# Entry
Amino acid sequence: MKKQFLLMGSLLLSTAMAYGAAFQLNLQGVRQLAQGGTGTAVPWDAATIFYNPGGLSALKHVQAYGSVQFLSANTRYVETPTGTYSADSKPKTYTPFNFYIGGPVRYKSKLSLGLGIYTPFGTGIKWDDNWRGRYVIQDIQLQSIFFQPTASYRINDIISVGAGFVIATGNVKIQKAIPLQNMNGQDGMAELKGNASGFGYNVGVHLRATDNLQFGISYRSGVKMKVKRGYASFTVPTSLSGSFPYTAFKSDLNLPQVVSVGVGIKATERLSIQADANFVGWSSYDSLIFDYENNTASLSDTRSPRRYQNTVILRLGGSYAISQKFTAMLGGAYDPSPIRDGYLSPDLPDNDHVMVTGGLTFKPNKKLCIMGVFEYVFTPKRDGSFDEANFGGRYQTKIINPGLGISYDF
Amino acid sequence: MKKVYILGLMGLLMASCKPNIEPEKPSSGEGIDFSSYVAVGNSLTAGYADGSLYKSGQKNSYPAILAEQLKVVGGGQFRLPLLPGEYGYPGAKLMLTVRKGLCDTAAGLSPFPYTGALDSAGSSNNIFNSDGPFNNMGIPGIRCIDYLVPGYGALNPYARRMFVNPAGSRPVDEMVVAKPTFFTLWIGSNDVLGYAMAGGDQAAPAPGGTNQISNVDIFNAAYDTVLSTMKRKGAQGVLINIPDITSSPFFTAIPAKGLLLSKKDVNNLNDLYNPLGGWIRFEEGYNYFVIEDSTAPNKFRHIKDGEYILLSTPQDSLKCKGWGTLKPIPARYVLTAGEVLKIQTATYAFNNIIALMARRENLAVVDVNSYLKTLQKGVLFNGSTFNTSFVSGGAFSLDGLHLTPRGAALVANQIITTINTKYRATIPMIDVNKYNGVLFP
# Structure
């Protein structure tokens, strides 16, 4: 059943996602994204199930919430130190989405329950099949969908707490060329596919210190995504096919834990300002291991060291109520890359992200809210190499990411 | 109005969504002119591969690959003395083939002469007038000491087909017909290779014979003349030294301790050899082959580490005629320690001459000898690994001595690195994997 659901999901909305710094996406709410990705301190809407489960009990009504982003990332590679060669990643639009439902169990109840379905991690990049880095990567797609049933309790007028249990599913697809050529000079190819699953949790505390000052702190646990039985298929010259059998493989991907703290200040009746910091435990991603069930002299298990380092993301955003119906939002963030020099692989040629965001909400009536957001991400050019493959060059990525959302209060 | 403004802003953002970095422009450096590049050398330079010379091998020779890259820094046209076809001239090239040899129990992958169409008609014709003068002057088989031999073109069919005056000229005179402004000089390998391929000290030494190591003084004089001739009109160039050929797969593909024996074989063999006194002994697993050695008692012994069995040893004889076990491998297929020493001593002496002349002429040397040792340990390029293993190493072609196009590109990159350092140029590295390695059926 779960698989079917996933499949449907990927048919309706291609759930592959790309790019936060490294493969964390920070797109779990329209209003929040529009304010630079802040959202730990202020429970604007049901998206607080992700940003801070402690904020859920601040919602006065049960709310249904849905949003989708249309993210296009473009990466260019150029050879260094000099040369003539450049390559562009294939244009592709990813549609990360969020769905939340939640609110008080009864009107004015201290207990709130909710469910979030969202896509916090993912990456994808597709290069031309014959590009220079083809023996490192041709195409990689990592997707995840998290299901998070959540409960929140308002202890008093100041403090609320919340916790959610995370059931994570996902899949991985990797394709690269193998330097074994047939009589026509065509390379061999490896394709790895697998479904992954894991568990985690998301807890948070929300403090309404005064009417104008709110704080939030949340902890999202690391999630060990296990590919228990993926499949690898190899296309190699026929005389070598015996050395490259179709085989099952195992792999783990440790998604990082994230600690977030935030503050929200209501500066005037119309203007509020938010700031967040996220401490991302990227060191969980130490290496990428593929353990093949069927090893041969030519096919041994692989271990690719990645040695990501922990990062701190800083976010700032503001919201201004233009009228009863319209609110405008602006924000920015700085999301440093966890990738060290020497580990810059073309499967995720990441650099520090500088994000600028803006958005608008329209509330035609008390219950309905329509939200729009636009994000622009710029990464400075980065020279680096992937020492493991002795593949280096200069990369730059730019991302545009418009999104739409709708919420309805019952 | 506001909406239009927002749409306009979004349009701007869309346009700026494409990264705009471009590669840095290469520079040709100082005091060097690549407009007329002439490559002087032997079979390695000609693009000889898989045991023969054929058109696509020539097109993927290291000078052709290098010339292509030099175009970004002012390199000119590079004329190759192309053969008409792919068959190989004069003999068929080798290709990896799945076949069952006479002594094999099952079909396996091995190099086998090309069975495609014989398209070498006209290969022996002189093509100077129609296609010359040539920039790739690589002549398979030529030794350093041959460059001063008048009428050499009459002795070597590869020279004959591309020289202006094959019957009368010295090879050295032919090297400057294309008026080089830049040259690469990679000569001298054949001054030791002929000896090594003949299995070292064989037959009565005929002075100056191709199966002898060249005399150092004659080598010195010939190298000096070639280099002076190349430089006469002010051309710049790089010298490429001589690799220690015993590191190539031709000598290492069959390991000294490569004789795999079962318990039963071991018992039979030991029963046969024991009466001799036990200095030939076998154990279960891998053993040292038995080789002929005129200086050993009974004129045979086990081979030792550091001695080599040539790839030209008939495989069927090894597999089912008892070579290396019941019958010692003939000396013409083996390099003993003494012979290896002679090869290495001569290589060292020749490389010394090259280094001294480079210093005298203020030219840079591409140390291919060291690079081959680096390659032995493995070289990684854009995710693809190369080493000196036979077939699987990717850099050496199926004859075990000459390069694949990828191997040639690796050498061309060494030349570029040397040029960049010496002339402060920034010529980009060649994408080695753009070319073919070993092809598998």
In short: Chain B has two domains: 37-248+337-434, 259-335. The longest helix of chain B spans residues 337-361.
